[in-house]
Amino acid sequence: MSEANRGAGGVVPPQGQGMNLLPEELKKDFPLLRRTVRGGRPLVYLDSGATSQKPVRVLDAEREFYERHNAAPHRGAHLLAEEATEAYENARVSIARFIGATPGEIVFTKNATEGINLVAYAMSNAATAGPEAERFAVGPGDEVVVSEMEHHANLVPWQQLCLRTGATLRWFGITDEGRLDLADLDELVNERTKIVALTHQSNVLGTVPPVERIVDRAHAVGALVLLDAAQSVPHQPVDVTALGADFLAFSGHKMLGPTGIGVLWGRSELLEAMPPFITGGSMIEVVRMEETTFMPPPQRFEAGVPMTAQAIGLGVACDYLAEIGMDRVHAHEEALVGYTLERLGEIPGVRVIGPGTTEARGGAVSFTVEDIHPHDVGQVLDELGVEVRVGHHCAWPICRRFGIPATTRATFYLYNTLGDIDALADAVRQAQKFFGTS
Amino acid sequence: MQLEAMYQEVILDHYRNPLHKGLREPFEGEAHHVNPTCGDEVTLRVHLDGEGQDATVADVSYDAMGCSISQASASVMSDLIIGKSVKEAMAVGEEFLALMQSRGQDVEPDEDVLEDAIAFAGVSKYPARIKCALLAWMAWKDATARALGEAS
């Protein structure tokens, strides 16, 4: 058990009895959350959807690696190289366990964005990679399906793949309630579809799409399914075998880990057959001047000296989250979202963009405040120590869909409290007062 | 609160009652600029009377979507430069850019040159908002370059 988790069962939060909240003491594990901002105000951090804060254990793990074991893994035969390799591979084991995968299916990337690009580029490289890679090849007449609620990271790489290969990009729309519009699922996902790339939890709307239904349809027509899990793996229990998808990409920094480390999970038989994206050292088997053969996965996809300390940090973050329990993290955030919807709902002029209930919904609450631009809302909130994100949140088509220029977005994590949400609601009222709209 | 330093009454007035707003004819140059971090957009037209740097800025018209800072800045700017020569207007633009890049350090903004635009001094302390204040100015520079290109 972690330091923070000790005695968790016995501590009753001052507010929200009966809600499934984690103890507020958890906050103590995160040194940054103790600092003050803008003239000594306590920090209310509501931007974990952009990046999460880090517990001491993760910071210590990175530091310890650099102080005691730093060497390039999978190279050299000296003691430090051995220790670095072991620590790096142990991190892979922790992360695999965290999502119900086997270590060989865990490919380290820079972040979710790179993981998605890895698959998209592997697919365009497939044309020249031999018969084994044929199932990844795309060309004119083939279709790639995304949705209107994708983060740019799961939209632009597919637009680019279609540009390179002549394939056609198609997409699911969004309902007025902020759900994925599956009315034309059978028409959109058809025999021409090569891959369906979908968010597993919208970073703007919070929506969690019905993955099972989409996976069933995609697999029935022989299409692959990639899930952008950047917002799901940090916040809900994810078991890749139960999900049924073929690829899953997520980032370490959004789940208490360091920046610069992410994961692409892929089914082993797919990774075996998939050509590489980035090539170079350590992903090779035999190199001659005329040609090169590649290592099996995951090494085939990890060219160059890897982000070792970051991978170790992410492994520790996974262990930390697993000790608390992802079902409890999820329940905690669900309670926070419910409370947020309630508190924001009391404020005239506030409109939530996305599902109005906690059902199939994660911890991102986007909203508009009548007659105040989100940038201006955010400025007043920041002045009061409440740090949220404003803008289009790297998902511009969602704003166009709802006919708004941008939103203000609060996102939560295990260290947030009901008090943070009270501070948010109060600050929104302050913004209305400041701009004279209430 | 620091907020009052940023949202000066002048800025809020221009935001609520923007001057010279709306796209008008005639015009020789048009530019569309966006702030990709927040999605603010401006389409701006320039009508020049005469040629080259000595031409008079006869009209600046614009359609803009965005926060109070970007909207007020478009209003202040158009009011400031309409009637000036291109050369004079560019000089005002340079002075405004210098103010915005000052990061709140002691730059003495020239009130005679900048007029209402000195109200944006407080914005320069917030790096994330400087782009908002500069959006219309950049669009104007671009549209003017196009207008001059067409004229020559």
From TrEMBL, chain B:
Gene3D superfamilies: 3.90.1010.10. Pfam families: NifU_N. InterPro entries: NIF_FeS_clus_asmbl_NifU_N. Transmembrane segments: none annotated. Residues 6-132 form the NIF system FeS cluster assembly NifU N-terminal domain. SUPFAM superfamilies: SufE/NifU. GO terms for molecular function: iron ion binding; iron-sulfur cluster binding. GO terms for biological process: iron-sulfur cluster assembly. NCBIfam families: SUF_scaf_2. This is SUF system NifU family Fe-S cluster assembly protein. It comes from Actinomadura darangshiensis.
